[in-house]
Each structure stands twice: as structure tokens, then as C-alpha cells.
Amino acid sequence: MLYKKIHEATAGEFYDIDHYDSIITESQYGFNTRGEVLFCFVKGAINPDNRRKYANVIRSCCKSKTKNRGASAGPVDLRYFPKKAVALCDKYGNEFDDDKPRYSVYYKEADGKIVNRCQSNQVRSGVAGYFDKVAGLPCRKVGWSNKNPLKHEDLIELAKEIEQTHMTHCETSYKFHKKEAEKCSPELLFKDTIYSTMTLNYDFRTAVHKDKGDLEGGLSTLTIFEDVPDNYTGFYLGLPEYKVAFDVRDGDTLIFNAHEFHANTDFQVLSDELPIDDLSGENFAGRMSVVCYLRNRIKDCEQSKNM
Prior knowledge:
Layout: E1 22-24, E2 28-31, E3 37-42, H1 48-62, E4 65-66, E5 85-89, E6 105-109, E7 114-119, E8 123-131, E9 140-141, H2 143-147, H3 149-169, H4 171-181, E10 197-202, E11 220-226, E12 232-234, E13 237-239, E14 244-246, E15 253-256, E16 263-264, E17 267-269, E18 287-293
Parallel strand pairs: 1-14
Antiparallel strand pairs: 2-3, 3-15, 4-8, 5-6, 6-7, 8-9, 8-10, 10-18, 11-15, 11-18, 12-17, 13-14, 13-16
Helix pairs in contact: 3-4
């Protein structure tokens, strides 16, 4: 099916379900007006016998707190900053007295100290696998994978399942990724796959954003695991400029162009089976998302001594 851009989105905005003209609930392809794959939605992509194992492996990384997600974490809100924060401000300590949305700011503590690191709302998100040079750090195996070698090995199995879906349902994209992955040091990939990195999220409702660092001209993959089956409604992944969204549930994989604006709709938790999240003050929904992709510049890395 062909999809045209019919809306102009702005980074950092949230869109609810009423923005979208269609919610896709079954396997389907979509193409942009240039005839390129916009998305390939595959229901039940992950073997049901493996889903619980993978959920148990990724949970700790998914639930990590981070404060560097920028616009994808939405306009800054003091409630989503460390508890010691008493006011949001610029780097000079000037507090904001307007309603302009901001996505990375500084904050003050009760004693007037200004925390000298610009940051966004705290969300639950972590990274596994490998990174190229960024923020002054070398090409490397990331901290979580270094600290959890056995879990990292299990993620190789997950990467291979996702890759099989990519190859079977989106062959042209797969071949492009494979060609680019062959330029990379094998030590910087999930072993024998086309992917270098996984971003792992827990109940992270993203605002409108474009992924950075992904393979240029390539597609990324989104796979969902649920801590408690059918524990929430909503949480659709949407492409707001195309007004199409996807009900990606346990074991489903969406292969899509993450360089397009995308975001999640609001959601409703249906039970109190999971504990309360200290960030939101509400019970967890239990939605774990796995974004599996190839870093664009990782082909420029030499083998790292830290691996």
C-alpha cells in the first residue's frame, strides 16, 4: 500500500490515537511515494517458545534509567528529573518563566547548586551491543553487555531471529544491511548478524523524533515483548506525518524507516499485576521494546581493545 506525507510533525510533540487515520493490526507492507519500503509489519515474528526467555534477558537493561534521550523523552518536566532537582534552568542558573517547550536543560538542587550536565526527562531505556565513537568515547562494547556477558550471548539468538524476519519479509533491505555489515569488524556486531546495537526500552512512550546513528538508507527493527500478556491498551507506534500507526504486541516485529518521524500514542494499564514505576507513579504496563539496528559509522571502527 502507498502512503503519502499528509502532516508536518515537529520533534518533541506527542500524538494520541485520534491523530491517525489507520491503526494496522495485521501483517502488512507500506511504501512511500518514491516506491521505497516505509514499513514491513510482521505479526508473531518471534517464536512463542522463546519470548519469555528473551523478556527475562532484556528486562534489567530495559528498566535502566537514562536522561539523554532528548526530544524523544518529550518536553522537560521537573517530575521526571532526579528527586534532588528543585528547579529547571539554563547553564547559568536562570529559571525558565515562559511556556516554551525545551528538551534538554540544567537543574538546581536545594542548596542552589547547578548540575553542570544538560539532560532530558528521565526514562527507562538502555543499550546493548556495540557503539562507534561518540561523546568522546571510543568504539566499544557497551557497559551493559560487558557486565552481562551471558545475557549478551542470549541476545545474539534474538538478533538472529530478528534477522531471519528481516531477510524473509524485506529482502532488499536485508541485502543492503548485509553488504554494509560486511564492511564492519565482526567483533562489533552481534555475532554472524547484520546488527551492531539494540536499544532496549521499558514503558517508554516516545515523543516525535528521528533515530540518530542508524544506517543511512537502511531500515531499523522494532520488536515487542510483554511482561504480562495483554496488560495494556494503546502504546501504538505511529508515523505521524503519514497518519498511520501499528499495534505492535508481544513477539511482533516492525521493520521501518526510523529516519522518518515516529512516536508512541498514550496507553492504559489494565491491571496492578506489575509494581509501581517511581518515575510515573503508576503501575508498569510491562511493554519492552527492542530496536535492533546497524550503527552507521561502526564500519569506520577498528577492533576495540575493550571487547
